[in-house]
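Bumping my old thread because nobody answered last time. Still need a sequence for this structure:
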């Protein structure tokens, strides 16, 4: 079965908790704090499986969870990191946020994407000892792993897309041009799912061509096999529009061209304006004079290249190959999709914080704070002022006041400490 869309839920591992522990040894009383840090949670990572061309496995499995990090141990021992979870997807898969539909990443031919980051391990109490605070009785809990609902969508990587009405000979042409062996038969809708073929021409001039199921009037509204398959020619640099020029089935090729053009435009404006070659197939059966005239007038008017060909006798196939290779040389590369998310937007997640109060020390934790802090230079006044502004704007100061902080108390945010002054 061919599956090219799937919804899944991924969850990265939580970070392990840091622990509170004190060194204990015979004859040594009151050993120092030695609580170790929790391990990092595993991330969920997408990688390409070059041999795969369907999302079928995701029909049977929807949940993908990476491992949690383990809690820290005494004697300053770290908890084990959770293992990353690698999900293999076919080349050309696009990863979207299921709820907004926005593109998060296009895996392309061989890229890699960390889609959900594992939570950080919490710090054990051994981190919190200072000259004035020798017995820290608190540790930090591990950060939560990110969780996301995603839609995977396969858009095959093909340079050239074959489009046309059913039964015009698209699959036959693909089988002549490449080593692909799609099913061919004299009835409509023989091809039920897209097929890719590699055309090798030497000197690095080869290209990939995609044969998709035949389109009919109303395809964009779901008639026939629907326009869903058009997504597989979405990235194509060039379209080869095949028609049955013999008119043997009582069809009018020009009428057919108009239908396909309309369906392409309904799917996406950029598809109808994509560079195109009109290929008049089945010319071995003879092309009626009036069809010839109409076709030539149409293609001239639209400045389209028109080639007569017979996929059955192979006549004209070489000319088509040369024409495609020449056009591809000057056409932009295959479309790769940019993420539709701004990094900032992605970070607009959980802004919650946790305040632990120990005597006059207020320990603030919150995963997002770590990210903010990684951009702050604490030796630089301006940078520091920025950080304080962030604390005020995001409500951290307010939360501290609510928790009862007084002038002169200490605020501890990860490894940064300062005295609170109203
Ligand atoms: N005479 C003649 N017949 C052809 C030619 N090309 C294809 N055919 C025949 O046309 C019929 C349909 O061919 P397919 O290649 O399956 O057509 P298709 O466009 O892939 O059809 P769908 O997958 O159903 O959309 C088959 O019987 C082919 O043998 C040709 O150049 N000349
Ligand atoms: Mg076919």
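Sorry it took so long. Here it is:
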């Amino acid at each position: 079965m061919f599956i090219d869309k799937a919804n899944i839920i991924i969850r990265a591992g939580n970070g392990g908790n840091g622990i509170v522990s004190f060194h204990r040894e015979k004859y040594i009383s009151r050993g120092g704090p030695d609580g170790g840090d929790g391990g990092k949670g595993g991330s969920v990572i997408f990688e390409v499986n070059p041999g795969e061309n369907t999302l079928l496995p995701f029909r049977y499995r929807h949940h993908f969870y990476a491992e949690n990090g383990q809690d820290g141990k005494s004697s300053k021992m770290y908890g084990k990191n959770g293992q990353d979870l690698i999900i293999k997807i076919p080349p050309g898969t696009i990863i979207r946020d299921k709820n907004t539909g926005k593109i998060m990443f296009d895996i392309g031919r061989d890229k890699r994407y960390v889609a959900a980051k594992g939570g950080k391990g919490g710090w054990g109490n051994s981190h919190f000892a200072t000259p004035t605070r020798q017995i820290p009785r608190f540790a930090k809990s591990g950060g939560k792993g990110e969780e996301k609902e995603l839609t995977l969508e396969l858009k095959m990587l093909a340079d050239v897309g074959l489009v046309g009405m059913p039964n015009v000979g698209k699959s036959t042409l693909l089988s002549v041009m490449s080593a692909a062996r799609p099913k061919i038969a004299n009835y409509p809708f023989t091809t039920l799912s897209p097929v890719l073929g590699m055309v090798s021409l030497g000197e690095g001039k080869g290209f990939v061509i995609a044969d998709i199921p035949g389109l009919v009037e109303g395809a964009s509204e779901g008639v026939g096999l629907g326009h869903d398959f058009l997504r597989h020619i979405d990235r194509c640099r060039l379209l080869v529009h095949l028609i049955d020029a013999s008119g043997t089935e009582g069809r009018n090729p020009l009428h057919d061209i108009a239908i396909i053009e309309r369906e392409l435009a309904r799917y996406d404006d950029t598809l109808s304006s994509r560079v195109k070659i009109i290929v008049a197939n089945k010319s071995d059966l003879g092309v009626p004079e009036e069809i010839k005239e109409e076709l030539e007038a149409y293609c001239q008017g639209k400045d389209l290249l028109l080639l007569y060909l017979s996929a059955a006798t192979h006549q004209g196939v070489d000319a088509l190959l040369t024409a495609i290779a020449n056009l591809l040389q000057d056409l932009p590369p295959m479309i790769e999709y940019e993420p539709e998310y701004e990094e900032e937007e992605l970070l607009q997640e959980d802004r919650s914080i946790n305040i632990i109060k120990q005597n006059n020390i207020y320990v603030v934790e919150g995963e997002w704070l770590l990210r903010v802090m990684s951009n702050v230079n604490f030796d630089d006044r301006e940078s520091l002022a920025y950080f304080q502004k962030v604390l005020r704007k995001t409500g951290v100061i307010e939360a501290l006041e609510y928790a009862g902080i007084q002038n002169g108390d200490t605020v501890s945010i990860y490894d940064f400490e300062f005295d609170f002054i109203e």
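The longest strand covers residues 147-154. Let me know if any region looks off to you.
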